[in-house]
Amino acid sequence: MNIYLVEDDTIYAEFIRKMLGQNTNYTISLFTSAEDAQTRIDQAMPDVLIVDYKLPGMSGIELYGKIKSKIPEDAKVIMMSAIDDGNMVLSFIQKGVRDYVIKDENVIDSLRAILDGQEDDYYLFN
To answer: Which end of the chain, N or C, is surrounded by fewer C-beta atoms within 10 Å?
Structure first.
């Protein structure tokens, strides 16, 4: 599974890459800005895009808006944020983002559940 991770906090990005990288089926490419990610996405769309909402320059949701028409039906887009705001999540859903993860102590479990297609079970029991 080809995963693009867009996160401007390099320490946090490395943490996520290390934890998710324990699954040898995942190839994870890091990007520190939405602009850099968009350049790569224009060349090759990943299976999964994990993108931080708050980025310098273009935000994660702005990136999603620019690439939305190119995203295949079976690709996953996971929006990440440290902000736990129901109205913000609702706005993501209205724009087409189906998966949202809060950057908390459960972030890796949440990401793994979504990547494994178990998000419904995970959200029901946690």
So the answer is: C
Specify the CATH number of the domain 2-125. Answer: 3.40.50.2300
Query: pLDDT tens for residues 92-119?
Result: 888 888 899 999 999 999 999 999 988 6
For 123, residues 6+ apart whose C-beta sits below 8 A from its C-beta are 113
Collect all residues with Cβ–Cβ distance below 8 Å to 112 and sequence separation of at least 6: 20, 23
pLDDT digits 0-9 by tens, 36-88 = 999 999 999 999 999 999 999 999 999 999 999 999 988 999 999 988 878 88
Residue of 31, 52, 45, 102 lying closest to 76 (CA atoms): 45
124 vs 5: CA distance, rounded Å: 26
Integer Cα distance of 51 and 54 in angstroms: 9
Q: For residues 33 and 7, what is the distance between their CA atoms, to the nearest angstrom?
A: 7
Q: How many residues does the chain have?
A: 126
Give CA–CA dist 120/112, Å, rounded: 12
